[in-house]
Write a structure and sequence with these properties.
The protein has 16 helices and nine strands. It starts with about 20 loop residues before the first helix and ends with a helix. The structure holds flavin mononucleotide.
């Protein structure tokens, strides 16, 4: 049992109830009562204020305060849109997947409340193309909610109309980036837009649009039901609440865990996930927030899992995906694998990312195959410098994380392999 207990789950709630995805079971457990309360007794502004007060931060990667983002949406412009980012393509991340497959009605309830709060009558769930089961399931669940009068015209007889559509992506990682997602939804090539303007002001079809992650919106029903003060009893002052974290790699018990924000990486790996798979093979490094994040080593094990503490340790909480790697892993192979992913997923719009990711893979490959050159470490770092902060969107920077981490922590291993 973990030493740091979670009093109750928020987003991975009702895991123990087998058929919670069935609307009859969900409503038996109080489901949709919060949406009813929100739409019939609260003003949109009161919901925005409560979410602001809760300190909920976006779970898609950047940790931007959700209520603040909602507050940017101009009230007087119509139509407005709510986009649910269900692209979940960051390697190592699989928590949205569980919410969609197991507890879809809590997500749909969150969408209804959030759409009402920002004044959007249309919501699109942009779901990763590979999630065929999840996409079909969501369509069925939206139909169930519609049959009960929770989706469609005049929901809960509140005068508010909400349509929710499921849109399947075509498997491009970049379409998780919010502006590329909007381009794709508009039927164009999924490539990022220049910001500003931000989507809150000019998003889908140039109209005010809020893009939020699946997990972010799944928090909303409980925040509105139990209040911001209750929500703040979880987590820390600047990272309130819980986080569904996916852990994989060389741990005994990989899977999704909902943790109170603020527990340390050590507690998470050893108390929650059961420690290293083989206790005789020590921990070598951790990719702590999805493939985009900079790596941590055993000396960082006491870093608390919060946005600020992870940033202070030189990395990020990211999408909540911890990949644990033991001493059996080759650093060169790991970095090559990560950069192959970014090369494959680079959308090609800007040269530093398109050419840079290609070049990084070429150099990692030759080191891995035993043809490394004496100046290859310097070359990798130099290519990284030419990419970092110079690409159109953060994908290019993400490819550099593996390079800089590998060189910073494992220079000797790479040099030995080149020799
Ligand atoms: C390359 C790239 C890929 C991304 N992929 C995802 C994704 O799969 N899911 C997601 O929710 N956010 C993803 N994001 C972050 C989104 O752009 C955006 O910040 C997020 O959906 C906002 O929702 P939130 O405020 O609820 O976190 C990605 C960002 C980048 C730069």
């Amino acid at each position: 049992m973990p030493k740091t207990q979670l009093q109750e789950h928020i987003v991975l709630r009702n895991r123990e109830i087998a058929n919670i995805a069935d609307i009859a079971v969900y409503t038996q457990h109080g489901g949709y009562e919060t949406a009813r309360k929100a739409l019939t007794t609260m003003s949109a502004q009161a919901i925005v204020d409560e979410v602001k007060k809760s300190g909920l931060r976006g779970r898609g990667g950047a940790g931007f305060p959700t209520g603040v983002k909602w507050g940017f949406v101009p009230r007087e412009i119509f139509p407005k849109y709510l986009i649910v980012n269900a692209d979940e393509s960051e390697p190592g991340t699989f928590n949205n997947h569980e919410i969609i497959d197991h507890n879809p009605h809590q997500l749909i309830e969150g969408i209804i409340i959030s759409a009402f709060a920002i004044g959007a009558n249309t919501a699109y769930i942009y779901i990763r193309g590979e999630f065929a089961y999840g996409a079909r399931l969501l369509e069925q669940k939206i139909a169930e909610a519609r049959a009960k009068g929770f989706v469609g015209k005049n929901v809960f007889e509140s005068g508010f109309d909400i349509e929710i559509y499921v849109h399947r992506g075509a498997g491009a990682y970049i379409c998780g980036e919010e502006t590329a997602l909007l381009e794709s939804l508009e039927g164009k090539i999924g490539q990022p837009r220049l910001k500003p303007p931000f989507p809150a002001v000019a998003g889908l079809y140039a109209k005010p649009t809020v893009v939020n992650n699946v997990e972010t919106l799944t928090n909303v029903p409980r925040i509105i039901e139990k209040g911001a003060d209750w929500y703040r009893t979880f987590g820390t002052e600047r990272s309130p609440g819980t986080k569904a974290v996916s852990i994989s790699g060389h741990v005994k018990n990989p899977g999704n865990y909902e943790i109170p924000l603020g527990i340390t990486m050590r507690e998470f790996i050893y108390d929650w996930a059961g420690g290293m798979r083989d206790p005789n093979v020590p921990l070598k490094f951790i990719i702590p927030g999805g493939a985009s994040s900079s790596w941590l080593t055993p000396e960082h094990l006491d870093t608390p899992l919060t946005w600020d503490d992870m940033a202070a340790a030189g990395t990020m909480l990211g999408s909540g995906a911890v990949v644990v790697l033991d001493e059996s892993v080759s650093v060169v192979k790991a970095a090559l694998r990560v950069d192959e992913f970014f090369k494959h997923e680079s959308c090609g719009k800007c040269a530093p990312c398109r050419e840079g990711t290609h070049f990084l893979v070429k150099v990692w490959e030759r080191i891995d195959e035993g043809h490394g050159r004496p100046d290859d470490i310097e070359l990798l770092s130099d290519v990284g410098r030419q990419m970092l902060g110079k690409c159109f969107c953060p994908l290019g920077d993400s490819a550099v994380s593996a390079v800089n981490s590998a060189v910073k922590f494992f220079r000797d291993e790479i040099a030995a392999q080149i020799k």
